[in-house]
Fold:
Amino acid sequence: MNVNIALLAGDGIGPEIIAQAVKALDRVARKYAHNFTYREALVGACAIDATGDPYPEETHKICREADAVLFGAIGDPKYDNDPKAPVRPEQGLLRMRKSLGLFANLRPIALFDTLADRSPLKAVVRGTDFVCVRELTGGIYFGRPQGRDEGGDRAVDTCTYSRQEIERVLHVAFRLAMSRRRHLTVVDKANVLETSRFWREIAQQLAPQYPEVELDFMFVDNAAMQIIRQPTHFDVIVTENMFGDILTDEASVISGSLGMLPSASVGSEVALFEPIHGSYPQAAGKNIANPMAAILSAAMLLEHLGLTAEGSAVRDAVNRALTEGIVTEDLAAQGERRYSTSEVGDFIAAHI
Ligand code: IPM
Ligand code: MG
Structure:
């Protein structure tokens, strides 16, 4: 298969981990006789430095022309500590999601057996295997009005959702539930928020189209508790943009390390694959960051293109690295050797 992949490495550890994912993809291409071509493009702080724009038109064009996008991370401390910065790397990420129509973000949370002892929740995490479908292009992240009033003494963010925005992401979640254990949990704050009540109403209206799916509802505060109290309760969670952002960082702890979790963003156009961790600026350039989430994002990319055997081969190689202890410092046991980002990437590529 010929696949044209846009590579958006971004900031911080992005370039190092994406390089490892490319090693894995190159190995897959050789082994299964595919032809993968890559086009690199700028996003985030590095794009601001080079062009003044965190998501330049050229990047958008490269993404639109690609069969899939592999993305690293964005963010730089120089913006985090400057709330008045006129342009921010995050604006690039949000604009990219919006303009590529990536309205559903799938974040699988599964425990790697070899890491069960590392999880601070080890008594409850065995058997954890759920996917969080996060609405990605609406809600309070994009609501208008947003900003300060003239005196600057009042700030406003607005949460809005249209029926169409809710319906399309609920359909993604219902269909995903059908392909899994057929249990869907809508997470909201319907006891307080009108947008949440609208989500509930629409979920109830769509439910008859998926009679085999067991549908339930949970308030977000309770969900935050249940995710660490009894994570095996969940199969598919669907929720609005900001709740999904927060709950998936929380859930990542279950897997043993935030450095393990990939994600897929899908919608009307090209799909995008990215690790859920951020740009981890403290580690940038040190060759110590865990590349597994980026490599597993590449596995999701392959599976999305229908290359399931190839995706499994990548996952098996990651599991092999875990079993043999070929891991970066976030996963290395006390007194065990800590491998570098590129050593882990080399090992995984060699075992595909
Ligand atoms: C994520 C990140 C982003 C988000 C930030 C960097 C804007 O936390 O992808 O989860 O909040 O969506
Ligand atoms: Mg986040």
Observations:
- Residues 245, 249 surround magnesium ion (ligand 2) (CB under 6 Å).
- The domain at 103-268 is CATH 3.40.718.10 (Isopropylmalate Dehydrogenase).
- Residues 3 and 36 are 5 Å apart (CA to CA).
- The first helix runs from residue 14 to 32.
